[in-house]
Amino acid sequence: MNTEMLWVLGLLAACVVAFIANRPRMDAVALLALLALVLSGTLDVSEALAGFSEPSVILIASFFVIGESLVRTGIAFRVGDWLVTKAGNSETRLLVLLMLAVAGLGSVMSSTGVVAIFIPVTLSVATRIGVSPSRLMMPLCFAGLMSGMLTLVGTPPNLVVNGELARAGYPGFAFFDFTPTGVVVLMASIGYMLLTRRWLANKPEKSAPSGKRRRLRDLAQDYQLLGRSRRLLISHDSPMVGHTLGELELRTRYGANIVSIERQRQFRRVMLTPAVNREILAGDIILADFADGEPDIERFVADMQLQDCGLRNDLSHELGLAELLVPPDSILIGKSILESRIRSQHGLNVMGLRRSGQPLSDNLLQEKLKPGDTLLVAGTWKAIRLLHTQSHDFLVLNLPAEIDEAAPAAQQAPFALLSLAITVGLMISGIVPNVIAALVGCMLMGAFRCIDMESAYRSIHWQSLILIIGMLPFALALQKTGGIDFFVSALLGFTGEASPRVVMASLFVLTAVVGLFVSNTATAVLMAPIGIGVAQQLGVSPYPFAMTIALAASAAFMTPISSPVNTLVLGPGNYRFIDFIRIGVPFTVIVLLICVSVLPLLFPL
């Protein structure tokens, strides 16, 4: 073990510790490690920056855009509504259809995004059929994780492993090479969940009259908001004219929360975000919410010389509501609504707060947020849709049915499906490289107006991409310094003269254990070259070993912090840490057995 290898291994260990502590952010850690490898002379500049030209990075970014296009055209939500219709009142039918639908959608878009979409749908149906959400949230979570096992583009670790095969001089995986094993795992998981759901909480919920998605009025009623809003015209004589909202301090003086501002521009009226520095002009129309009701409304209208315009029937086409859940790991916990800066960061106003199912009204803005709190926010549909990609500090729990009516590209849904079909067809046929096929799909989505450029850039999870770019040079640094050979020799020394299947099982276990502490993407970056190196040392095909690494990286079933998908369902499912251990550990063993049994048959050693 030479000095240079010790340096690289020490740096890698420091990165893992930083990943576990999550300080600083993982993408920042990866970039700092990249700089350290260059400044130490371990890698030259071109080697360290090779990740920026890595095709898998472009491929992952492209499928973030394609996935967002499916959301903007309403396709993902329509699948959820179809699930509600087909499930009826049967919990078993719901569980099976839910897992199939989530796994299918997640195979071509972000699994985290798919699970976030299906959480409110699942909660609604669970209430209607009278079962505890905890009996359905774990199956939803598992289906989201397994969606990454179904196609080459199902999850970033698949593409990372595929890229490592190419760097080692082997042809990569085809689009559906993951599918046979993934389908076996999915079918096993459905059967497993049907048997083990009784281990989860089974206290029935109160039944609701309908399983349809809730509407704006329902959400407003839950938070006691009905009758509190007024649409008011700013006259030329109003003392508000020429002042910013920050200067007016309307919430402090009158309890008036300005939700939106309508302003005439040339031949059309536009909806403006009520930012603190937004100046009020004569002729503006404001939509204001009053926490204390009629007395404040009358005083505000009289003092500010305003005219009541009445609420527009079509206002829901431009403005909407969303219910947000504060998850246990949110940085908002312990902060007040004012300190959380939801309006300044997301362009949304907090209209209400519920705790333990009860709405709070007194001193709302100063109330410190707690895990499990739900917030009702109001704003433009555009801002509400961006919640999925702009923050990981709250979960979009309920989106009203009106969001489908206001989908920005709902009429382009057929073209989105056509673009997706062309993309997948190109990847299957091999006419062009996968990354080119994905870029073609993005261009088609843009050409058919399924997504605009701003939304496309916002949809990309840049933290994941930077993490991959920063960690990829580690593989090269380990190869140059002998680190890969060291790990390969250590693993083969541990397994002795065991069969290749036993070595595959050891790789699976090691990858799954690393994945408990490090993101699945970083796990794949670290373990892929080791898996391929082990296969080369054994003189066998690298493909079953490479796929073992990819599948083990996605098998993040064992703890609620192993994957963002697990974290999303923790609150709505009312789960404890031990629930994931009880359900996840046995199923991880099942996935291990499937891998070592099936993969050598599909990819002969």
From TrEMBL:
It is a multi-pass membrane protein. GO terms for cellular component: plasma membrane. The chain crosses the membrane at residues 28-45, 95-123, 135-153, 173-195, 415-448, 460-478, 507-532, 544-571, 583-603. Residues 217-306, 309-393 form the RCK C-terminal domain. Its main location: membrane. PROSITE patterns: NA_SULFATE, RCK_C. It comes from the Bacteria. One of its GO terms (molecular function) is monoatomic cation transmembrane transporter activity. SUPFAM superfamilies: TrkA C-terminal domain-like. The keyword Mitochondrion does not apply. InterPro entries: Cit_transptr-like_dom (IPR004680), DASS-Related_Transporters (IPR051679), Na/sul_symport_CS (IPR031312), RCK_C (IPR006037), RCK_C_sf (IPR036721). It is found in: Membrane. The keyword Thylakoid does not apply. GO terms for biological process: potassium ion transport. Keywords: Membrane, Repeat, Transmembrane, Transmembrane helix, Transport. This is SLC13 family permease.
